[in-house]
Amino acid sequence: MQTQDTSNADGRTLRSERSRRKIVDALFELVGEGHLMPTAKQVAERADLGIRTVFRHFADMDTLFEEMHLRLRRDVIDATRIEIPDGTSRERLEALVALRCELFEKISPWWNATEAQRSRSAFLTEVHESDTPRLRNHLFNWLPEFRALPSAITDALEMVLSPEAWNRLRTEQKLSAKRATAATHRVALALCERVLD
Q1: Which domains are seen in the chain, by residue range?
Q2: Sorting pLDDT into bands at 50, 70 and 90, what band is 114?
């Protein structure tokens, strides 16, 4: 049978976990609404908690952004953990382009926010550097025969199918998601036209 002290400790732990979850949820909501770098005050207000509570759970905003990125990475992994379709090289490349464009559009507010923070965060710099080989492996998992292609083709294809390229189309060139997807599709197929079956 639990003692009163144990019950109180369990209650405090649950409240602490709830508060932490509310803080991360608040940051996710604010960034999703277009706030690239929300302040601790904005996060506290959205979470309906005191600002001291925010900093009790997270030493600074950088550590909170780290938590946001970890959640974002889990979402990305879940989104890309789908069965690779059968079909020709062309069909699989077309499916990969569609998947990447849909994924990058879905995560773009949070990706942009972590990019805005990256220059002052060793953690975000490290995970950004690890994302490039991860995306490369994802490409070759879908199209293993592309490993034999000249590096100039696969290097260019990696760039075209990157979140940076998607951000350029959507943010800098101000294309709609539909036009950005069409542009990505056209360039990816043009790059590989001679080797597609």
Answers
A1: 1-58 (1.10.10), 61-195 (1.10.357)
A2: confident
